[in-house]
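Continuing the series of single-chain predictions for the mutant panel. This is the parent chain; the variants come on the following pages.
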Amino acid sequence: MSKKNHMTDVQTLRQQARQHIDDGAVTAGYAADAQTVIKLLNDALATELVCVLRYRRHYFMAQGIQSRSIADEFLVHANEELGHADQIARRIVQLGGEPDFSPDSLSGRSHAEYVEGDSLVDMIEEDLVAERIAIDSYREMVQYIGERDPTTRNILEGILAVEEEHADELVDLLQGRSAEAGS
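Parent structure:
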């Protein structure tokens, strides 16, 4: 792929903007394969939705003396994952696709698994595993998309940063639980 060393003149930009007007945000300058990006985003959407469901279950199932603060953290994470799903679905539509919310195929398309966990520690660990999967998945998507779709890349990079924060918070919760058990 050759790098562009110049800016397109205004008249050409105006002319190109009028062509294929029904394509919305996908202009002639869009360098990625939109259908491939839409598929990646629909898989990411499934992952986020599975994570929302798992975190919500953990929120309601968290029990024990100091479970309230951990349950509250689960709820915060669930809501942030839902926000990620909304961002992804919006981008899919901008690219001319349709977000796939089908419950029938959700777990099969998700990178993360839906594991309930039997104890509070199990729940935290399962959420941490899912966050680590999401981190690697988003990192790979960012690398794959590269400079071909800077808008999608920026969205994914923002989500990736939050997933890394979630992982750090979950590790802190696990370390806190280990320290309590050792006391």
